Every structure is written in structure tokens, then in C-alpha cells.
């Protein structure tokens, strides 16, 4: 490990004043890298409430300098004109934020772009104008066959250009790498899984005991991807055989109301609670209150929350979705077939009657050994070193 480098993080998804949990895993990456290097974050996003052209907000926390530039949201109803105006505002915001960063710190040695679009436009612009190499982390599910939202001439053309210029492409799983290669997005691929904060996500000193077996589901509540309705239906099946069960659902989305209506229509509202958005600290406590995490996704490029549950020493009941099979082993929980609600209900009941036993210490250690700040921070530092050595 050589001398400290200055790494500039540019992320398509990143926490902001309107959505403090948006892309929080990219914040975790930055914190992991800051153990070994100097880290700055430049984030650009639109603001529908902004009256002036743009607004810049700066903060210094945990050794990370963050500059967020909010630009006025484009109101044009003409798609082509809207895209032209938006691109101009985005580039201007990145330029302004970068110049402000140089007043505080030296020129970055390297850029880490997190998710190609839309922030890749800014990363590509800065990298070429100021001669800074960049690497790219990717976790977007749009490339996968199940999602299928990577389409359109403009999106594909820009993405191909961004990926072609990246020195290293770092998908979060082999599953995602194969999906990207299927779109002819060739490059220097190195798998780098998501990182989690094992200092926040950890077992409680005094475990909570309850006569009722509780399960927790955590997600964006995006039905197409997460299949939350399937979880609720499977839970209802299990509840018919064991009334001492409870399901806690964490997350916010426009689909939440329809999920609540499904619970009411099934008559199980006394056994299902919707917790809304939780901070990482509160989420760790919530996970610890439950016997296991329930995930029933149709596809996953990684699933950070599964690893967060492991870090808390909690087993997981999950569908065999995408990248999940790459790390799930029997010692960590149970895998069921995608969309097989009967299997999921049987797995829930097996937990509730204590016929399945898991070692919390071993589960926790698996997360620490493979996904901690120390582990992923070192891996990224080695990649940076190699890129700069060959620059």
C-alpha cells in the first residue's frame, strides 16, 4: 500500500437533502476508501424547488469533503430540448463543484464513478478535461434480462462511451458482469462487492426476546423487483398455521399504500407492521429485533440488506435471485425458488418452530471477513494503485 491518494467519488445515486438514504451504499464505499486515502465527493442532482440556477452545499464529515450541487430542474415539455438543457446544467454544475473542490484540496489522482448513468456524463467530462483516470463501480439492475431497462440508442451510446473510457469496471457480482457483457460492454472487469458498515450493523449487546416470532423485510418496496406482495401472501399462508408470527416491513415508496391495502384485504393487519424509512442505526436495531430477514426478489445484483442482516448475526430467508446464489450457503439461511410462495411459507414456519438453527457468531464473522470497510477499502486501494502505476 503506497502513499495516500486523493480519490474523487462521483455517484449517480447519493444521499441528499430530499432523500437521505438514496444510494447510501455509495457513501459506505467512500467511507471505506477513506481508511486508506483522502476522499472527496462531488454530487450533482436536480431540485424542483430551486428558484435560482443552482445551489452548492459543502460538508466535512468523517474525513470526507462532500460538495453537492443542486441545479434547477428542467421544466421543458419538449423531450429533445429538455435533454439539451439538462445536459448543459449538469456539466455546469460539475464544473462549478470541481472548481470549488480545488479551493479546498489538491487535484484528484483518480475518480471513482458509481453507476454509469446519469453521473457518468459529469465524470467523463471532468476526466477528459482535467486528465484524471477513472474507474467505475456498477450495481444497476437495468442491464439484467429480468429488468431490461437498459435500452434506447441515446442511453446505450453514452453508457458505451463511459464504460470504454473506464480503466476498471467493478460490478458488484459475477451475475451483473455477465449481464453487462451480454450487452457487449467490454472492459477490464474486477468484481467488487458492496461494502457495509459493520460498526453500525452488529448484534445487540442485550438481545430482545419475544414469544412471537418476528420477521423483517427491508427494501425500496419496488414490486417488480422485490416482490413484496409475494412475501405478504406467503406470510398469510404461514399465519394460518401459526398465529404467533409478525412481519415488519421497512421502506417507503408510492407502492406502499397498495401493499397496506393487500394486508387489510387479507385480514392480517394485526400481524403486519409498516415501519417506513429508517436511518441505518434504527435499521440495525430493527433487524436485531427479528428472527430473520425475508427477501423474495425476482432479481438482485447484490442485495446490501442481506449482508447487513448477516452483520447483525441474523439468518436470511431469500429467493434464489440473481447474485444471491453467489454467496448464500446453508449456514447463512435458506434459499427458496423465486415466486414460490408455498416454499417461502414453509421456510417461515420452519423458523417459527425452531426446527432451523443458525450460529449468529459465524454469520456475523462471514460479513466482517468479506464486506467490511477494511476488506473492501483495501481491495479498492489495490485497484487504484495498479491503475495509477500504469497510467
Count of discrete alpha- or pi-helical segments spanning 4 or more residues = 13
Largest sheet: 7 strands, mixed
Helix content percent band: 25-40%
- Strands ordered across the widest β-sheet: 3-4-2-1-5-6-7
In sequence order, what are the helices and strands, one letter per element? EHEEEHEHEHEHEHHEHEHEHEEHHH
Features:
391 residues; alpha/beta; seven-stranded mixed beta sheet
Brief overview, please?
With 391 residues, the protein is an alpha/beta fold. The chain is built from 13 helices and 13 strands.
Task: Write up what this structure looks like.
The chain is built from 13 helices and 13 strands. α1 (about 25-35) links the parallel β1 (about 5-10) and β2 (about 40-45). α1 (about 25-35) packs across α13 (about 375-390). The chain is about 40% helix and about 20% strand. It has about 400 residues and is of the alpha/beta class. The strands form two sheets. The protein has a seven-stranded mixed beta sheet with strand order 3-4-2-1-5-6-7, sandwiched between helices. It has helices at about 25-35, 80-105, 120-130, 155-165, 175-180, 225, 230-240, 255-265, 280-290, 305-310, 340-350, 360-370, 375-390, and strands at about 5-10, 40-45, 55-60, 65-70, 110-115, 135-140, 170, 215-220, 245-250, 270-275, 290-295, 315-320, 335.
